[in-house]
Fold:
Amino acid sequence: MGSKFSSAMKCFIRCPACTLRLLRNFGSLDPETTALLREVCPDIEEESVGYYFGLFMGAAFVLLCVMAYLFLYAFRAVLEEMLFIP
Structure:
């Protein structure tokens, strides 16, 4: 799984427009897009690019949510300390 995931991420870095076009047209593979994707990334399956990129985007979203929660929790603690002076 690690090799397919890393190759899908490399393919996204090489041609982000192709990958996003595949994600947008999830059920149907556009012949122009698949031809361009095969030219840029010949060792990747077109179906797995969308799956692994979606998995990466989901993990990135969860990570950003956790970071925002921790930041806002720390900000609230600092703000409470500043407002409630003993």
Q: What stands out?
A: DSSP finds four helices and no strands in the chain. Residues 10 and 24 are 19 Å apart (CA to CA).
